[in-house]
Amino acid sequence: MSSQQQQVSNTNNNNNNNIITEPEDTNEYKFKHYWDSRFEKEEQYDWLGTYSQWKQYLTPILLSTNTTTTTIINNNTINNNTTDDNNNTINEKKKELKILIIGCGNSTLGQDMYMDGYTNIINMDYSSKVIEKMKLKYPNMEWIEMDMLDMKGFENETFDIVLDKGTMDALVVDAGDPWDPEQHVRYETLKMCKEIYRILKPSGRFLQITFSQPHFRKIFLNPQTEDNQNVLDWSIKHVYVEEIGFGYPLFNIQKPPFN
Ligand SMILES: C[S@@+](CC[C@H](N)C(=O)[O-])C[C@H]1O[C@@H](n2cnc3c(N)ncnc32)[C@H](O)[C@@H]1O
């Protein structure tokens, strides 16, 4: 992450009792030992804004995601039902959606979504330090230590939603030229995307909030073979949300079949 990104993250609404010094070398964000030592001192930090800021953009996407047992709800509107019926259906839908938050850190995202009715969430991070702490803090939720480049602990087609807020950003800090990123970073991001694709159910969605400009991020989200064929057949859309921080994209990526 750049120094501007660090500045942005420092202006977020965070509740941190200890002052965390950002690393001199931003490549540190790539390493587990950096996050472990940071999480020993830091209690809570939300990169790229909080759930309350993102809720209005996430809700229509989450509620329109097809689960195996409910009908599609578009933009929160269900015709021909009473308000009570609508609320019940929305609450059922929220409970049903199986969500994985990758690289959860000590953000309040998972707990805030849980309080908003999304009770079927797994929070995952490769830092054992943060997972231990978050388990004690929020025992009502599920916390798993895992590397997003190797999620063999999850079966194929397990999740309706995989949510990433600032996590791929930590993986690409040593990408070099954003127009022509380093091969090892292309390899790692492809591994991450293939794992996410594998664990998503058909029509499931990968939602990503990022510091990156969309055209640079698409190089990683839409990897191509040497003869310019897409490696993954998922669809990629984004909205640019200017109201949060200096403006961040929210990617909405869907595994086929599309709806
Ligand atoms: C920039 S922080 C974002 C934290 C949180 N998602 C938020 O919104 O505030 C990046 C997080 O990704 C985690 N992370 C980095 N690489 C990872 C990997 N390979 N597997 C799992 N988690 C990883 C770090 O431990 C850290 O918690």
UniProtKB/TrEMBL annotation:
Residues 1-24 are annotated as: Disordered. One of its GO terms (molecular function) is methyltransferase activity. It comes from Naegleria gruberi. Keywords: Methyltransferase, Transferase. It comes from the Eukaryota. GO terms for biological process: methylation. Residues 94-231 form the Methyltransferase domain. This is Predicted protein. InterPro entries: Lys/N-term_MeTrsfase_sf, Methyltranfer_dom, SAM-dependent_MTases_sf. Residues 10-21 have a biased composition (Low complexity). The lineage of its organism: Eukaryota, Discoba, Heterolobosea, Tetramitia, Eutetramitia. Belongs to the methyltransferase superfamily.
